[in-house]
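Re: [help] complex structure
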Amino acid sequence: MADISANFLGIKSPNPFWLASAPPTDKKYNVLRAFEAGWGGVVWKTLGSQVKNVSSRYSAVNYNGSRVMGFNNIELISDRPLHINLKEIAECVKLFPDRAMIASLMADNTKESWHELIAQVEDTGAHGFELNFGCPHGMTERGMGAAVGQDPEIARMVVEWVMEKATIPVITKLTPNVHSVVPTGRAVVEADTDALSLINTIQSVTGVDLDTLVPNPYVAGKSVFGGYCGPAVKPIALKMLTTIAQDPVTNKVPISGIGGVSTWRDAVEFMLLGASNVQVCTAAMKHGFRIVEDMCEGLNNWMDEKGFATINDFIGKSVETITHWEDLDINYHHIAKINQDKCIHCGLCYIACEDTSHQSINLTYGKPYNMYLVKEEECVGCNLCQLVCPVDNCITMEVHRKGDEYLNWKEFQRLGMPLNDH
Amino acid sequence: MAILNNRLTPEEYAENFSDIHPPFDKKEAALVEANRCLFCYDAPCMKSCPTSIDVPKFIKQITTENIKGSAHTIFQSNIFGGGCSRVCPVEKLCEGSCVYNLMHEDPIPIAKLQRYATDKAIKEKWQLFERKPSTGKKVAIVGAGPAGLSCAHVLSREGIDVTVFEKESKGGGLMTYGIAAYKVTPEFCQDEVDFITSLGGIAIEYNKELGKDLSLAELRVQYDAVFLGIGVGLARQLQIPGEELEGVVDAIEFIYNLRSKTFNQIAVGDKVAVIGLGMTAIDAATQAKRLGASEVTIVYRRTQDEMPCTQVELDLAKLDGCNIKWLAAPKEVIGANGKVSALVCREMELGVPDASGRRSPVDTGKSFSLAVDMIIKAAGQMPFKELVDGSDLQNSNGKIVVKNNDTNIDGVFAGGDCVNGGKEVVDAVQAGKDGAAAILSYLKLNKVDAKTVNGVEHTIVAS
Ligand SMILES: Cc1cc2nc3c(=O)[nH]c(=O)nc-3n(C[C@H](O)[C@H](O)[C@H](O)COP(=O)(O)OP(=O)(O)OC[C@H]3O[C@@H](n4cnc5c(N)ncnc54)[C@H](O)[C@@H]3O)c2cc1C
Ligand SMILES: Cc1cc2nc3c(=O)[nH]c(=O)nc-3n(C[C@H](O)[C@H](O)[C@H](O)COP(=O)(O)O)c2cc1C
Ligand code: SF4
Ligand code: SF4
Ligand code: SF4
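Output below.
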């Protein structure tokens, strides 16, 4: 059996699955249920100035009959009184001392407010802080949340204030509502944050109600941009995570990966691209806390199969495989092959290649089943056909290298080789 | 003992004749199935539908909740799309070639989805088609069955004034008078005919019989063209002794009564023999059972390998508890007091393959007898030979001979069961469309059906 326990900045948890700062972590009742279900840790719903919420607050994107592919909220930070949150955090830490308890913070933009909030929260016995530089709505108008995360210099300043005071580890949570997360990441690492976490939610409009003509979520005939999360944002989160894991400044600190993690497989992908642990919000909101059982078992089984004894054995392993386009091997070439025994004659590969790719599949008419064959000399190896084929392993890509040796674009140009020969 | 009616309680009749293919009861259920459809290119399901409904398109339209568009897609190819969704033997048509079969998974329930869209259209009386301005041409159609009405709909859309002459008092043909009662209700058949004629430009004259109330010669004079969609009507006789005894009925008549009267008026025996193993035989047997017969035995001359009905239909009869006597040929009906008391059959064995490739049954000389009080004959139907001969229509044993839906008489067209000798509703609908196309080109008006897509021949014309 592999060891799936995690150690993030000295904060130990029996597994690398934390609940992200959000409704699942906003009170003792939820957090105790989460710990009972097996979650390794929680990031308590952001504490800070008193706020008021509206309804509705959520909307979702459904796709092809599958619900909540994307999730959107216009919720603010915790709307419960601070002293109650602090009391409950302390109680949870006592009841489950082996689990990670991180308090998410967002104070007014003054040194004093940050110092006062940190002092109050440290008294609870929480193991670490997470700075909320990401909340994209409501708080930004007051210069907080994403307004901080979007300006590296303000972010640097706030982290400096925090580091003067905090005696427990500090994680800075980044907003994705920027063209690159690296500048803010560098600024806060230079200001000595102990770790980074990303991503918070992405500004979005999930859709418009075709009856009322008002976008979602609906609040008395109006709507606002909300924060997008859930499975739909995972590819964006992974990209942003990778840029932080590759950067020589930001990769000095551990990263907590967030954004669309729903299964152990997603978690492993985040960890392979540099996250030391993961945080989950939408998947828990959709399915409840029990999803963590399969996350733990799935991770364990995968590690056993791959021969990884601890999670540190694979964290960051895939980062180096993401390179620059100009370093890719131009001599690598593959072409599609359709397995006629598996083919169900749906024609999806044909029409995809015909209408939108390279007209490289040949149709032989039959009644009722047509036959489809790849024209090898025409195929550019884009693998669109393989992606749209509904049968597993029916279309495979066969390697037909253009040359034995590695050749990249820079070298290709230097040699003055002819374009468009393959 | 004479055969009896009113054997069951009203609740039992209702239960026995309730829909055997119930519709989706929830939108979500329809969406889940619709979303499974792969949206195949040049889809095999579409090529296996005699009316070439664009199945992937209409299913895609269900997934986007464009039900009006979906219904339009269906009705554009098959104006009986509502009825067909209930009666088509889909296991040998569209669903039978769905690519999911090749993955050894359940095919998309195409008919059920088709019903989902068309039920809504018929219920809400959506006007999905508009007539073109009148061309001033008039066409007479004989027979308000699927072939006749489908022909009428296409012609009326093209601006032709159509008059349909029908010998019965209701439209729909065998849809109304022949198909098993647990597939379609009389109310549905009426709604379907109303939906089709709501387009306008189609007048139906009921209780007008060709050969009795009107003649082909008159119609040819009064109209620019004539389409015959008269079906096949008469049951084939067994020509064995005792056939005239009380209790021997023909399946068509038995089912006609069942469909046009209330269930408790229909007399059915206690022990019933059904002769034949086509779709009509299955329908007669299952419905006799559902009317309250305690024992129903289907008597068939050959074996399962040669049976004309599909496995699905055979299973239906078996599930209803009907017995099957394979390799048995009826030889004589025995009676007592003028009423049926037994059926004597000869045991058969299979001989050499005949012209149709089926091995013919050969008499072994051994006999057995079944004690029965009712015999239903379903040994095939005979075309209206006299009517056809009387009109000088070229025919083969009463089946009207056509070339591109054109008969030997100028301006007279025909299609459906009266030409093919009896197939399915969906074939008759296509024959009606083809007939309309032939009439339009005869009248030098536009042809409606594009038959090629991407240079590939698509429409499968019934023959
Ligand atoms: C018992 C039985 C069960 C069947 N079950 C199914 C099934 O489950 N699914 C399926 O797809 N198909 C089924 N069929 C076949 C299907 O009903 C026919 O193929 C289809 O109805 C043929 O359509 P049609 O328009 O050619 O003829 P018909 O439906 O027979 O219509 C002909 C019309 O012409 C009228 N007519 C006839 N002669 C004259 C005249 N001289 N003057 C005026 N009007 C006239 C008739 O009254 C009738 O209305 C079944 C057939 C039978 C007999
Ligand atoms: C309803 C809701 C409320 C949230 N509130 C907070 C918050 O108070 N503080 C915070 O840092 N992130 C907040 N988030 C963002 C999540 O912590 C997380 O970063 C984001 O949802 C992406 O993860 P996911 O795809 O697993 O949901 C909230 C998200 C949701 C859906
Ligand atoms: S890999 Fe691309 S070009 Fe080649 S057959 Fe498939 S879709 Fe066409
Ligand atoms: S009309 Fe009949 S055969 Fe054609 S698609 Fe519909 S159910 Fe299938
Ligand atoms: S064959 Fe099946 S999956 Fe393909 S379009 Fe037809 S119904 Fe859909």
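Residues 6-321 of chain A form a domain with the TIM Barrel fold (CATH 3.20.20.70).
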